Every structure is written in structure tokens, then in C-alpha cells.
């Protein structure tokens, strides 16, 4: 029986909860533990950025006092992209036991379905 890896130090509640769920449910290789660590840290970053925007608002004053998007919104968007890629690399199975598709695989499957759906209408 494989021992559940200990969570990395410094995880916040959201990252810790995800770690406990995944590490307690799957046997992970060393590389997967590293990916899981970065996923959990990214989840914590997303939460921190959400709190920042909630506390400071979605806009800030620009150099001339004009309203502009809060810089945390761009960081939040970028962190979500990284999080999606990390989760795709981690390849956690869905409820049917299949790996969740990467964004590229999902687009390819969608395109194939559309081709097949339109094939009979031409």
C-alpha cells in the first residue's frame, strides 16, 4: 500500500482541501505530486486574487484618475489559464474513470462532433 503524500507547507484552505481530496483518492507518481502541489498553490492564488478584488473593487484609478480594470483581474485570468493547463497535465479521471480532456483535446472533440452532426445535412 502506498502512503498518502503529506501536503506541502503553506497551503491555504482551498489548496489544502483539494490536496486532501486528490491525494486521498489516487496513487500519485512523484511527477503527479509535483503537479498537484502547483495546482493547489494556483487554487490558493485564485482565492487570494478574488479576495483582493472583492476588497478593492473591480476598478482602480488610472494615472489620470480614470477608472481602469484592477490589475488583479488580469492576474486572476492568467492564473486560471495556468490552473487549467496544470489540471489537464495531472489527468485526473472523471466519474467514468476517463481522464479529463486537455483544452486542445476538448476543442478537437467538439469540432469532430460538429463535422459528424452536419455530415447528414449536406
Descriptive tags:
mainly alpha; 122 residues; flat; two-stranded antiparallel sheet
How would you characterize the overall build of this protein?
By secondary structure, the protein is mainly α. The protein has a domain at 13-90. It has four helices and two strands. The chain has helices at 13-25, 30-56, 71-90, 103-119, and strands spanning 59-61, 67-69. A two-stranded antiparallel ribbon has the order 1-2. A hairpin with a 5-residue loop joins strand 1 and strand 2. Helix 2 packs antiparallel against helix 3. It starts with 12 loop residues before the first helix and ends with a helix.
Topology:
Elements: H1 13-25, H2 30-56, E1 59-61, E2 67-69, H3 71-90, H4 103-119
Antiparallel strand pairs: 1-2
Helix pairs in contact: 1-2, 2-3
Q: What radius of gyration results from the CA coordinates?
A: 19 Å
Proportion of residues in helical segments: 55-70%
| Major sheet description | 2 strands, antiparallel
- Give me the count of strands: 2
Mean pLDDT: 87
Gross morphology is flat
N- to C-terminal distance: 56 Å
Order of helices and strands: HHEEHH
| Total of helices | 4
* Spans where pLDDT lies below 50 across 5 or more residues: none
Enumerate the strands of the largest sheet in spatial order, edge to edge or round the barrel.
1-2
Structural class assignment:
mainly alpha
Q: Strand portion, in percent?
A: under 5%
Task: Characterize this entry briefly.
The protein is mainly alpha-helical and 122 residues long. The protein is 63% helix and 5% strand.
